[in-house]
Amino acid sequence: MKQSLLILGLVAGVYSQAQLTTANMLSNGDMRSYYSLDSSASNLASVTGTDVTWDYSNIGGYMMTPNDLNVIDASASAFASDFPSTSLCEEFNNGVQTFFNNVGDDVIVDGFVYQEAGNDFVVRYETDDLIALALPMNVSESYTDAVDGVAIIPLAGTVNIDGDATVTCDGSGTLNIGSNTYTNVIRIHTLEETSGNALGQDILITRESFVYYDLDDANPLPIVRHDRVEADLDAGGTYGFQAMYSKDAVTDYVGVEEGETTTLSVYPNPATDVLSISFEGTAQELSIFNAAGQVVYTSTAVQNLETIDVSAFDAGIYMVQIRTENGLKTEKVTVK
Predict the structure, then answer these.
(1) What is the DSSP letter of 66?
(2) Measured by CB atoms within 10 angstroms of the end CB, which terminus of the chain is less buried, N or C?
C-alpha cells in the first residue's frame, strides 16, 4: 500500500502541541454511546488552524435514545465473510460498520458497510486498502492515499471502483457542543471519493467525515463526529445519509425555533406502506430522519400535502421535519 501524497503544511517543521497519537487507536472492547444531533448543521469546514473554536453551542438534538458504537472482533460481524483478513470492526448501531486493522502506527481500513432504506452497501478495498490514520498526526498535516476494490451495490451488483482519500488534521482548539466546552480538541477531516461503472452507468461513492477528539479523554473514541456517506448511481438515484453525533446529550431539541408555530400532521401513525404529511403555510424543505439521526428522505419542492412511500424503510421510529420561514417543526412517526 502506498501513500500517494504527503503534505506537511507546517513552517520549518514546527508542530503544534496538539497531536493525535497511537493512544487514539481503537481496540476490541472500546465503546461509546452517541446522541443524534441536527443533521442539517454546518460541518464548519472552513474553521481550521490552531487555537480555533468550533461553536455548536446552539445545536439541537433529536428526542431519541443514543446509538452505541462498539469495537468488536471482525469475525463476530454479520459481514465477516466479506472481510476475512480483518481483525477489528467498528460497529455503529446506526447501520454503519467499518472493518480495519492496526498495523504499526497506521490504522488500515479494509472497507465498510452501510445500510440505507433496507439495502446493504458493501465496499471492499481488495486491491489497495486505505490508510485511515497515519499516526502521529499534527495540525496542518495531510496526506492522500489511493484505494482500489469493489462495491456491492443494490441495482448495480458488484462494481470495480478506485479513487483516493485525503486525510487532514485540519485544526485544534476549543469545541462547544450544547452547554459543554472542551478546550484540548483536535479534528481529523477525511474526504474519500471512489468511482466505477456498471451497466453503462457511472457510479460515485463519497465519504466525508469531520471527527473531533478530546486529547484529555481516556476513551480513544471521538467525542463528536459529522458524517456523510453517499452513493450516486447515476440514473439509479442517490442513496446515503448525513448525520452528526455527540457523546453528550443537548438540552435543546430540533423543532420550532422562532416565530409562529406551524401545524404539521403525519398519518397514519404508525405507517406501513405510505405516509401522508400535511401542514399549513410554505416550507423550504421536508426531511425524514431515522432513529440514528440520518436523513433518509429530503425534498425542497414541498407541497402542503405530501405522500411518501415508506415501504422500503426499516421498521422503527422516524422524525418528520419541515423547515419554514418561522423555523423548524418536527413530529415523530413509527414505521412498521
Answers:
(1) P
(2) C
Q: Which of 227, 214, 215 is nearest to 176 (CA)?
A: 214
Q: What are the tens digits of pLDDT across the range 16-69?
A: 468 999 999 999 999 999 998 988 889 999 999 999 999 999 998 877 778 899
Is 199 in contact with 176 (CB distance < 8 Å)?
no
Cα distances (angstroms) measured from residue 62 to each of 49, 69, 177, 293: 30, 18, 14, 7
Quote the CA–CA distance of 26 and 154 in Å, as a whole number.
31
Domain boundaries, the chain: 3-246, 264-335
**What would the grid cell of residue 330 be?**
418536527
Q: Per the CATH hierarchy, to which homologous superfamily does domain 264-335 belong?
A: Immunoglobulins (2.60.40.10)
What DSSP character marks residue 262?
A: P
Give the up-direction half-sphere exposure of residue 36: CA atoms within 13 A in the CB hemisphere.
25
**HSE toward the beta carbon, residue 205, CA cutoff 13 A:** 28
pTM over 0.70, yes/no: yes
User: Reduced to 3 states, what is the DSSP secondary structure of residue 179?
Assistant: coil
